[in-house]
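Teaching note: in complex prediction, the entire set of molecules is handled at once rather than each chain in isolation. The prompt given to students was simply: 'Predict the structure of this complex.' The entities are:
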Amino acid sequence: MSNMTSDAVVIGAGVIGSSIAYQLTNAGVKVVLIDCKEPAGETSGACDGLVFCQSKKPGIHLQMAMESKKIFDGLVGQLPFDMEYENTGGMVTIESEAEYLAMEKYVEQQRAGGLEVSLLDAKTARQMEPALAETIVGAAYSPMDGQINPLTLNLGLAFGAKQLGATLLMREGVVDVLCDNGKVRGVRTDKREISAPIVVNAAGIYAPQIAQMVGLELPIQPRRGQLLITTPVPKMISTCMISASYIASKFDPSLAAEAARAVSLEQTETGSLLLGSSREFVGYDRSTTVEGIARIAENASRVLPALKNVQIVRAMAGLRPYTPDGLPILGHVEGASGFIMAAGHEGDGIALCAITGALITQLTTKNQTEIPLEQFNASRFNCKQQ
Amino acid sequence: MEELRIQKKRGPQVTIHVNGEAVTAYQGESVHAALIASGIRTLRKSHHGEGRGVLCGMGVCYECLATINGVPNIRSCMTEVEAGMEVVTDEI
Amino acid sequence: MKSEHYDIVVVGAGLAGMAAAVIFKQHGLNFLVIDENPHPGGQLIRKQPHGEQSSLDGYQDAVKKSGHKLRKEFELDSHFLQAARILGIFEACNLCLEDNQGQSRLISAEYILLATGAREHFMPFKGWTLPGVLALGAAQIMMKSSGILPGRKTVVAGAGPLLYTMAGQVVRCGGDVPLLLDRASRREQAAFFKLFPPQLAKLPEGLQNMLALKWHGSRMLTRHAVVEARGDGQVEEVVYARISRTGRVIPKSEATISADSLAIGQGFVANTELAASAGCELEFNQNLGGWIVAVDEQLKTSFSRIYAAGEITGIGGGEQSLREGELAALAIASALGVQIGDSPLRIRKLQKYRQAQKGFNSFLANLAEVPPGCWDDLPDETILCRCEDVSFGDVRRALTLGLDSISLLKRGTRISMGRCQGRTCTPIINALLKANKLTATAPSIRFPVKPVVLSALECLGHDQ
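The expected output is the structure of the full assembly:
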């Protein structure tokens, strides 16, 4: 195959890499988007579509989510596939008094961070969502949360970039990142060499393998999430939902055991419900398990009892790129000029892909970003530079 | 459409209810066949609202779904009629 | 809860499954046969609604006679669990079972025999989603199991020997087949006569059907196909035309006939989903009917404890299923250390039969294949994925954008993501990809292999 030259190579055509490629191309940068599989062939093809602000840490994390939402609003109608973005509003369902007290504090912080959010009592929550179980104690509600179809979003961004002039290389793997004197000059794939002064590592769960090619060690690990999908049913819920125990376990390690009861719920445009999701460290094992499936089924029907009679059409498992502090790794790295990180979003990749694409584009074209990237730098983990 | 039944000699006669109306069937018949014999071919609605009826007849295609005895999404081709059975079509 | 363990779990109570079961039973093995249907017999052998002697089942050749004997033997046998399903196979030989009460549980086995059979394949046309358009097999099963004709006037169309079998059955049952449309040419049909003597036994049934149709006055046209099914809410008329060697509709050859039922089929595809969910390797073999389960000469799959028999190892009909069921059973028995009389000799004989059968396999596969030109005349509004209502136009547009594989088309258009989990449309999309010179990939499947009610999954957690 013939060699190529471009301004930037983006490795990984998941939702993060595709969003970067789309926005770079839109900004006039000549991009090669490359993936050893296909767009949405890994994590972004096996996840839910929640675009949740409420689940983000108050602070810069929440700020990113809110900026991302604005970009989604502007993307509607721009991509070659309908991303089915709906500003449904989101509920955090509360199942105990202890959770309610914890959520009171959390909602305060979210408000201070600029999020429109309120705490509802059980009666009000059930008025809004009559399908909720009577055991629900209350809910936090934000009109800013929404949902999206991650598959058509990802394909829309990747093939949208292609329509705008980017080169999309599918089923072609990067085997080396080429460097001269600490400066990136392109990549070698299993088919050719591509010259470019910028290489973006958006390889998600494979980001550590790509980073190693420039001698960088990353603490990203695959974390499995199992999901169940139902056959289409008449409208059961109008908002998307996550359990308060999910947030509790995410930000308070002492409540980690609570995560076993957590569930996320959304009903897509076609009427199918997505029920998620487990969080397990099992290496690169993508299989679904009987225990995992049974637990999601139990958790989901505890929150929405009417689900008991709904048919499950498939179970799936995706591997999320976990980082120890729950934040992605973004921006330049030391010792490899031109190498840019954009990976490690774990379960936030869908929600944060739009802002991630915008920030990496700003970094590439203007060398400055609207949200400072220092907190997201790989050096925060004291990564070994070899 | 009684003439669609091939033989005069059949299993015991039963009455089933389709969307509330009594329909005569015979034991051993599958629900979708009994419905076709009584002139009902449309069982479910597609996403775009078009009527659909049985395609494969062997439990593969899920086109013949109906609510049977209160349980939604039952494949009528894989279910035999029973006296007093309640069948509701066009649910989804 | 007690753990339920068997020497062998057989999935599918068709001819292959029953032929294996009879051997396991004779030798006192601890086995369970699971089938989705309310009665054993599979698609070919069906319980008659009343009495056993019936014209409904057509010509009684040796295969059908053995099949009905087996069916009667197993009708109320405790080794057979009817109206139940295997939802998935985990970690080699653990099976997730949904029983006839809608409850799920886990069972395990030393060996699994997959005998999941085949389903029909279709070449879509505008209006094929209208009620009244049904599969050849569906019409046949209605007649055999329920004693009910598919319609007053049934047009029969598609390809393969089942066209004639099914049409013959309709006229013998007193129904009307005014028209039979075969995509294949006379020359392609005549290839059958090159398969004598091994296939001679299939001749009487074929002749009987041809004679019945001639006697009835059915028009039988070769190299003709349906262009459109029309009607208000259900089929009222069928538009058909002559087609060229490349599959194109020949201009001005279109004609219309009124009918209240249209039975269609374009050969068969193997039900490989459960095998794939267990992780067994699949292979693509055009001569054996497309994607099939890869097996060695003992019918062992890529997993040493899982065997496969019947249509899922290659489309070949009832006799092949009976013989493969026997072959797999002898191989499994011997792997379990059970000595059966002259089994090595018998195994060699059955293996030879399999080899000799290859000519018939490729004859069937050849009839079922559609030439690439068939797609050119298909209007955009034709539905390809019936569950998700995805049209040919949607897929055509996605192909133009560069979505060049089943998995990309799935993510971009939702094809094959509905209730049937792609069983109906995936073979159609694969044929379309092939016509566009793109690679067809092995059909993937996820647990549960067929939809299951959520409450049935909840209880799985408590079994452990």
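Point out the following to students. The beta strands of chain B are 13-18, 21-26, 44-45, 51-52, 65-68, 71-75, 86-88. Chain B touches chain A through five residues (CB under 8 Å).
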